[in-house]
Specification:
- The longest helix is centred in the middle third of the chain and has 17 residues.
- The chain is of the alpha/beta class and 542 residues long.
- α2 crosses α8, α8 packs across α9 and α11 crosses α12.
- It is built from 18 helices and 21 strands.
Length: 542
């Protein structure tokens, strides 16, 4: 059968049956052959365009099992972008500059603020400084985990938050002197502000579509050809489906439909959202998962742990955090999800919430229910629970971008002590047979570059050299294993492994051309590898 295109050179397939090849052939957007140059060229036919890769190498397109592509696109196009390294003065300077070009009472929305700084902003005086910088406008700034917010007095007013009308959920930090809300809002306490912003206009349908388009463009630039968005709204579902129907979605997209929503303020969620998922199914967009937030984040002490946090004045010496659901509630939701033929991504940043997922998974497996389950983040797992993931068929959705040495690990150490040094037991997970899948959690991470995550998995150090040291180096994995984590493993966890994630005949022609073979190179220089081209479904998209 005649191929449209044959590429010849150094090729890594992420297929353990044939990890290396010399050539691949592409026909009608799919891979028609993989093998030696002689084999592939012999079958290609006279009409094929033959391309010599020369010094470049060809890998499968990267797969990101956990990101928020639309939020990232929205931030770049429509919001105030703040580097997490900015201090209070730097943040206020950016807000002041943004306000200068805005109408009176226009919203200023953006982020991020370092999690190590947020609680230090919890004073009336600091809120008034934000008010002055914004010229009295409503401001809503996200902290680096995207779970928490810092907002201005006008934003509190529009959201109906005062000392007498505090949000029923989440935590509103009050000034210890005057007892008024400081504007620092943890978890669901920030949702009324998000709703006030959305009620004032938010984004139009066209802007949602542009946000998704831009998010996918940025992913393509880093060689990503498939991703799972870890929490979508109706607007994001509509944007992805619309792009694909118009032939403009340049990646496989798996959406996670929110069952509960303690941070985004999306509406609808739960059954009302899940019931509509199939409306948005297209060739390349698959609304195949739900998303459950089972806890929060450790720096805000909203993650659930088996052992208590480091003592503090507000929580005492025996505070473990808590899960958002009981075992029976989680079991009920996951049984319903299984009956619909969907999978579940469950946010667990503490080992207590992770154990709860595994306990429910055990009940489901005993009933013969094989619904795909992912523990999202899973950076902290009790030693006894590590082998349970493989035994129960639960995937580990890991985000190395946010745990190698840097701002977030510093914040973890402050609340967890020495436990923070034992994060992401990836070597142990692989050795016990678990499916370990790589995700960026972008824009919680600053970049969705898989090379950054891959180098972090191999070296257990910050690939960009911003922070010194290594984190639990015994848990390092090889470069070849890390490539699988960000290709075939992630595709398998998302249910896309029949379509993408490795270079095999019959799969979608999704691949990336790099300037060097980083698997065979210096692990300290993986991040220096350049993405020269990204191809999706046989089309060059970057």
């Amino acid at each position: 059968m005649t191929a449209d295109l044959v590429l010849v050179g150094t090729i890594r397939t992420a297929d353990r049956a044939r990890p290396l090849a010399e050539a691949i052939a592409v026909r009608d957007g799919r891979i028609s052959a993989v093998g030696t140059a002689e084999e592939v060229l012999a079958d290609a036919g006279p009409g094929a365009v033959v391309r010599d890769l020369r010094d470049s190498v060809l890998y499968p397109g990267f797969v990101d099992v956990h990101n928020h592509h639309a939020l990232a696109g929205r931030a770049e196009l429509f919001e105030l972008v703040l580097e997490p390294t900015l201090d209070l003065d730097g943040i206020l300077e950016r807000v002041r500059a943004k306000a200068a070009d805005l109408p009176e009472d226009a919203w200023i929305v953006g982020g991020v603020i370092a999690s190590t700084l947020l609680s230090t902003f919890a004073t009336t005086e600091t809120r008034h400084r934000l008010d002055e910088a914004a010229g009295g406008r409503p401001v809503m700034l996200a902290e680096d985990s995207r779970h928490n917010r810092w907002v201005s007095s006008r934003a509190l007013e529009l959201a109906g938050i005062s000392a007498d009308t505090l949000p029923a959920e989440g935590e509103t930090l009050l000034d210890p002197g005057d007892g008024t809300p400081t504007g620092v809002l943890f978890e669901a306490a920030g949702i009324p502000v998000q709703e006030a912003y959305d009620g004032a206009g938010g984004l139009s349908a066209a802007q949602h579509r542009e946000a998704s388009r831009r998010g996918v463009e940025l992913l393509s630039a880093y060689g990503v050809t498939a991703f799972q968005d870890a929490g979508v709204s109706l607007e994001i579902l509509d944007a992805l489906a619309g792009l694909d129907r118009d032939g403009e979605l340049n990646a496989w997209a798996v959406s996670s439909l929110l069952i509960n929503d303690p941070i985004f303020g999306f509406d609808p969620v739960g059954t009302r959202l899940i019931d509509r998922g199939e409306e948005f199914r297209t060739v390349h967009h698959r609304p195949d998962f739900v998303k459950i937030f089972l806890d929060g984040v450790p720096p805000a002490r909203t993650a659930s742990f088996l052992e208590p946090y480091v003592p503090d004045a507000a929580h005492g010496a025996h505070f473990h955090g808590s899960a958002t659901m009981t075992e029976e509630e989680l079991y009920g939701w996951l049984r319903d999800v299984a009956s619909r033929g969907l999978g579940a991504k469950v946010h667990c940043t503490g080992d207590g919430s992770a154990r709860l997922v595994l306990d429910v998974a055990e009940r489901l497996r005993d009933e013969g229910l094989g619904t795909p389950l992912q523990i999202a983040h899973g950076q902290f797992l009790a030693e006894a629970d590590i082998p349970r993931l493989a035994g129960l068929g639960v995937s580990a959705d890991i985000s190395p971008f946010i745990w190698f040495p840097g701002v977030i690990p510093t914040a973890l150490t402050a609340v967890l002590g020495e436990r923070a040094e034992h994060s992401q037991p990836n070597r142990s997970l692989l050795d016990t047979g678990a499916l370990v899948a790589g995700g960026s959690d972008w824009p919680v991470s600053e970049s969705p570059n898989p090379l950054e995550g891959i180098q972090g998995l191999v070296t257990r150090a910050d690939p960009l050299g911003r922070a010194p040291g290594v984190l639990w180096p015994e848990q390092a994995i090889s470069a070849e294993e890390a490539l699988e984590v960000f290709t075939i493993n992630a595709a398998r966890a998302m249910g896309l492994d029949a379509e993408t994630g490795s270079l095999e005949a019959g799969k979608s022609a999704d691949f990336v051309i790099l300037d060097e073979d980083f698997v065979a190179g210096d692990p300290e220089r993986i991040i220096d590898t350049s993405v020269q081209e990204t191809w999706f479904a046989g089309r060059r998209v970057h």
